């Protein structure tokens, strides 16, 4: 591993800036802004904070598309992830004219502004690229229009154009200011939040894992900003807080909830290289001290290397003496952090009373020390760091002690589990694993005995040299003595040392001298051999012990041969050993990990299970037999007391009526029952004639020849016959026809720890079934052919009839669902796909194509215009049985029908919306609107848009008819019939998974609709004029005149009420209703005084016409007020200026020489009347 690869272990992230709008402006800004922020440093002055001096930060930015989730809302309590929020939001626009801005960008920027401005404190800018506008000489008016739309935020509207460095420099400084403001608010909030969390560290419910994750996120933020010293200080605070927590709880009886109490360190070996890539602690409820401290020290080392790299690059002239001294200083920092980590772990585990897996601890210790020295070697040799000699020597001593202990697991064959555990940690290193010496060396140590010997010697020799270099003479002698004993043991008979070490460790654990035990056993055996028939059982037990634990290989083989010879000489005697988990010196060991807890089968099935038998004897067993017995559970077992294993079971109950708690023992356990070891031949559990009816016996059908030493995975088979529930009873191993080793189900370790893992075999009869596979997307589309897949299973009985078929139809006979019949190649109300014959438990998939026609989709409310969802039941008949499945359908289109008036004509508009991207393109063929009349001939309505174009997904499509003339102005309800014929094709790369011959057909959407159309009585026209003298346009907060002109379409002389209403945010209207007398000419005119309240393009106030109960004549000038009793029915009218907007400018101070307002108002009223008269003419 070189320094550059070490720095790449944890890459630096970038701050997010969201954008929306023009992609061209985005590309231009990216090319100008990213290099500037990557190369320049900003001064971040934090007033009243921990660091009064300014921090020199560097903004590493990344542009991402805008989303409301990227807006930081600091008003919400809790932790906020900085890498999931944008610190600044930009909107890019590049219109060339006011019309292009109004039609193309204004709506989008308004929607974006409404979303961003909802969050208080969100920083945003609008960037206007005026390059195109300058070319068309529209820059001034366009910029004024944009700023008028955002009059309250003109400082956030920034103009740029290509080639202008002045504009870009201003934008860069403005963005830097907003980024600092947003960053300061975010960091202040997070630091306050972490400070509040930290105050509760003495509580057992304090979640240190979450606190560590939040603190590491803040450290990553500071690392992104380039303030590495601040990052290192944050990790030092984490380390100090962890020490305080452990010191506090070491004196308490309880432990913190986040601290793992199990013996395992973690899911894999916590390697520094892997943990340096982790941005957070393991996402579990609890972690070990080794994992959390390794995580902290890994980041401390990486940050230290980054600080060193940054300082070296800033050295003036790259002075070699300064660089060498700096390497030694930072190497000492790494050694200090590493030694502090491993020392703290040992002390804290002891203080907390934690019992960790020794093998994992030793493996981690070796890997940790090797990795720490590897990081130091990136800077200099450990022998060159004189002022950190204690740390270097301590790490070397711990490494040698750990590999010595690790040798016990390698020599005893227990290193496979450690290697697998270690590889899990290696998998997290990714490509860094190939560059790590620790990974390569630990793999070789755990996988090969010779490689273990090599590295054992290498580590001791290098440590001895380092200790001698720093003057640690006594410790170096101790390591030399350990190495000498190891080498001396290696020169003896191969394999003797691992057994001796294991035997000595056993004596130490039991407090008995191993030499005394071995001599005692040999002496006892010599005496027992004189009378083998009398002490047969004891001789077998002692032979097993000496065959397994003798120091010399020859002695073990000799005692094992004596054991086999003893069994052959006494073949008429049967010896049974009931092995329990507490039995020492077991020759054979059973593991049921490979047996599933639940086994299901049907009568006649061949069952197979795998069981692991461990042979601890030095010789292979040739004459053996393994049986696994599952006993049939009797029908009366529910009335018997449950068998809960060796341990007692207790039950606690509460009586609500009496308010009494009861606690009792429902199973006393079986530890007091002494099993019989020597039984007669009739008592040996050999299957009798009637036993196959009561049990299932698994045996090895094809014997492997011998039971070799170590783990042997055996495959046992049995045939299921009778229906019932069978439970594992015992496992028997017969050796030489004499020794029967029985393992009861409650003595198997996996089941003893958890009785729910006792294997149970269910033998049952299985009927044929039909199931519907999940429809793609969760629903089917109506209006187009769809595919349904049915899964057929024959069950426990074969189906031999090759002519069997399914009958698929709809449960609702009136349903508009059709099925594709392959035999006739037609769409029918049912289909009969052929199934054929099926074997036992055979599964087969059948495909059925279905089409649900579109009917009655029209809605009149826009809120209900979304695609409707319906459910239909599909009935499947097979083998005389019936299955019903509910299929959810969603319409291919949604339809909304509206009627409107256009002068004296009535229109019917059918709007078809496709809100989802379903992959189909609709090809319209015909659209017809007819009256549902029986007595009169049907007159088709005139179709305005006669050219029907394809309808693509996520689009809206309109079809407009002119109602027949005789029905346009009839106020009675008339039934109409809509018929829309279409075809479909797949859109682009969409794969319909349906043959083209199936879905390529004509589809028809039919609808019956009732229409009532009123005739328009009046035609209205309105105009807005400014009340200011000499002014043409309206200005905000200045009165304007709304002139309403009316033309009667019925030539009726009457008095009507003209009503004006508007949104109070846009207009202020003092008098909203006026009486208007319609003359014989059919014309009338009145005016209202309105005041605009907002700058921009405002919609005209709405105009309404009502009947009037007051019979006013033309001689009446006005009424003082209009009472509610004067209002009559609402009159249908055609408003010619409906939807029109008026441009409202900002307010201005009137000039001194302003003319009379009244005279100017009269003049403009006359001009407006003249223009409106010409318009009506």
Automatic annotation (TrEMBL):
<dbReference type="GO" id="GO:0006891">
    <property type="term" value="P:intra-Golgi vesicle-mediated transport"/>
</dbReference>
<protein>
    <submittedName>
        <fullName>Trafficking protein particle complex subunit 10</fullName>
    </submittedName>
</protein>
<dbReference type="Pfam" id="PF23036">
    <property type="entry name" value="TRAPPC10_1st"/>
</dbReference>
<dbReference type="GO" id="GO:1990071">
    <property type="term" value="C:TRAPPII protein complex"/>
</dbReference>
<dbReference type="GO" id="GO:0005829">
    <property type="term" value="C:cytosol"/>
</dbReference>
<feature type="domain" description="TRAPPC10/Trs130 N-terminal">
    <location>
        <begin position="14"/>
        <end position="302"/>
    </location>
</feature>
<feature type="region of interest" description="Disordered">
    <location>
        <begin position="1152"/>
        <end position="1177"/>
    </location>
</feature>
<dbReference type="InterPro" id="IPR045126">
    <property type="entry name" value="TRAPPC10/Trs130"/>
</dbReference>
<dbReference type="InterPro" id="IPR056913">
    <property type="entry name" value="TRAPPC10/Trs130_N"/>
</dbReference>
<dbReference type="GO" id="GO:0034498">
    <property type="term" value="P:early endosome to Golgi transport"/>
</dbReference>
<feature type="compositionally biased region" description="Basic and acidic residues">
    <location>
        <begin position="1158"/>
        <end position="1177"/>
    </location>
</feature>
